[in-house]
């Protein structure tokens, strides 16, 4: 991993079909939280590198952020392009209510899709994977609220650089906590996940339901932090990086209420492997629900406690986050 990890950052914009007005192509097969697709027709397509911070905006809201772990490149990829039948340019926009759905910005010609000129062009296709470091936005942040973070004024571009000096402020805003890339993402962890474990995320999602049921068979409908809870709010939390070990192990997880699970994954809550008591970040002490967790014992029978080594690994990383939160 390059020494300049985290010094470059980008806002990558994706549009839902309902919101996409530019009609010259059918869009890209982005999978938010897993990968971002683009091609050589997109400005800045050659500038994104492994190790860059990726902030993903979907329509008017920021969805979250992660690290560019791997970039898949497909040269000579065919792409279908729709052009204005009159001037052959691609800068036309779709209108939802007009009889003629498309209007060309260059020559003002109006036409429907079936009238468009369709050409097949060759591009270099890219797919940037960031799934294993993905952090879902903790709060709604709208596009209009992030203007100060852009490094350029090219509002049309889907891939725009961010001001490096303001990156931490943006990540703090999105994550609902203090973010320090050098602290939060260990070099050893980043080195292991960058470049080859995206399929682990897919396997995790495919096996998550079965893993949750096994956790409920093991612990009953009981949250390890708060005791008996309705089953609808219980989730199976992994104690290890699924990117590093893409398997579901019974002693490698615990049942947590949904909000506790989110805080546990965010490293704001951890379990001390020596005392088996819960420790929290100081920013949680202003909330009655979470302040009560500090020093509370893990509500799991000793015979069913998770693997101590895995608890210790999570605790070691969480300590780094908790200390600056």
Order of helices and strands: EEEEEEEEEEEHHHHEEEEHEEHH
In whole angstroms, the N-to-C terminal distance is 27 Å
Counting DSSP H or I runs of 4 or more residues, the number of helices is 7
> Got a strand count?
17
- Portion in beta strands: 25-35%
CATH class of the largest domain: Alpha Beta
Low-confidence stretches: 19-24, 200-206
CATH architecture of the largest domain: Roll
* Radius of gyration over all CA atoms, rounded: 23 Å
| Mean pLDDT over all positions | 83
Main sheet characteristics: 5 strands, mixed
CATH topology of the largest domain: ph1033 like fold
Q: Name the strands of the widest sheet in spatial order.
A: 10-4-3-1-11
Structural class: alpha+beta
What does the overall shape look like? Answer: elongated
Total discrete domains = 2
Helix content: 10-25%
